[in-house]
Amino acid sequence: MSTSSAPPRPQLRHFINGEFIAGGKTFRNISPVNGEHIADIAEADAATVDAAVKAAQSAMRGPWGRTTMSERAAALHRIADGIQARFDEFVAAEVADTGRPVHQARTLDVARGIANFRTFADLARSANTDLFQSESADGLGALNYTVRKPLGVVGIISPWNLPLLLLTWKIAPALACGNAVVAKPSEESPSSATLLAEVIRDAGLPPGAFNLVHGFGGGSAGEFLTRHPGIDAVTFTGESRTGATIMKAVADDMKEVSFELGGKNAAVVFADADFDAAVAGVMRSSFTNSGQVCLCSERVYVERPIFERFVAAMKEKTQALKVGYPAEDNVDMGPLISHGHRDKVLSYYRLAEQEGATVVAGGGVPHFGDERDRGAYVQPTIWTGLPDDARCVTEEIFGPVCHIAPFESEDEAVRRINDSQYGLACALWTSDLKRAHRVAPQIEAGLVWVNTWYLRDLRTPFGGVKQSGLGREGGRYSLDFYSEITNICIKL
Ligand SMILES: O=C(O)C(=O)/C=C/C=C/O
Hints:
Elements: E1 11-12, E2 14-16, E3 19-21, E4 26-30, E5 37-42, H1 46-61, H2 69-85, H3 87-98, H4 102-126, E6 131-134, E7 142-150, E8 153-157, H5 163-176, E9 180-184, H6 191-202, E10 210-212, H7 221-227, E11 233-237, H8 240-251, E12 256-260, E13 265-269, H9 275-287, E14 297-303, H10 304-319, H11 339-354, E15 358-361, E16 381-384, H12 391-394, E17 401-407, H13 410-418, E18 422-423, E19 425-429, H14 433-439, E20 447-450, E21 465-466, E22 469-470, H15 475-481, E23 483-491
The chain binds ligand 6UN.
The ligand O=C(O)C(=O)/C=C/C=C/O binds next to helix 5.
GO molecular function, one term: oxidoreductase activity
Family: Belongs to the aldehyde dehydrogenase family.
Active site: 260
């Protein structure tokens, strides 16, 4: 009888003080494509997190703390080169953990991982600080200038929806500004972070400059990290209630926080919009990454004259979406991140019908007749007919679903869009330039796209208002968050 044994599953380890270490408990990495157990991941206990923080503190007192901006910029470019050199491995890691389409992992996730390091390498090198020529009572004047210094040790907790993109979005500026980092990726997406640790090691950063610990949130690595007295600042992307928990955990130590949290984003389509562009745009903003992007539109408001036509067009395109394997040609959508998240999304699919929704498309689980039926797939879904206060129209679902409602006037649209506990992003479709400039500033959100969605210039401020977050990252906003700024006044 053949004794062919399956290849050993990867064991994903922590990266602390320049070394990969394992030990202690492990937890399983399950494929969302077919439910298979694909790897085992070390879970950091409090002692492991403490070792990581101490390594970071030591790096700040050692060579890393003495690097110049140019040396750090060069190090970031070496990291970007390293990701580029192992591009296909990063794609495979993202796809293994998340089941996303390969073409998305290539064109968005890994490409942005490289871009994030290069952007902040160049921004940090060219960033200026303030200088004011000040008057004084004796008429001789004074000079006021600011200097940027590292915060110290930054704790980074990143989410599973865009694993590499969002982890590097924080690591790059944190390192560029001279901090040491302890990062904890989501337990759902450990693979690309672990590969990144190899690249950072091979880029020659001193031991302790970057550290990686795996685990969960409360009662696990995430809580040990945020509560550790050696952590000087915490940056987190994830659910709003987790953000509130972290804020409470760090309040007594007055640690700096930057939060990019949940959303219930709106898309608003005026009758004068380019119809085909708006349909294509709302399809993207509703179903990209299986709707698992904090910027996705789960509320769509369409001006009455084109409402029926718009719903019909969305129905046709949604029913034509190809849901399948990551590597299938022209696949539009993969599974959700996990069976647990799928259960959450399906609970809203059931709730919508109880709340009286008309299910225009989807509403259930696709049937493949193969291993994918053991995966975490759901159908892309469209609802109409719900009241604005329905839970499915107010609560973040974070799945491939949107509710489309008609509106009669611009003021009504703005009022309904703003009637939300969240305020992250909005996509506005109109051909009237004056309307675009009139409406966009009225939207209570950190980001408004007009006649596009998720077009990113990494120099711009990124973040949300209300329950969608605290602070902005991006461009000099990241440099300001990841630095301590001192103002120095020189009497002339
Ligand atoms: O594109 C970015 O820089 C970014 O932060 C995206 C966040 C998406 C969250 O789900």
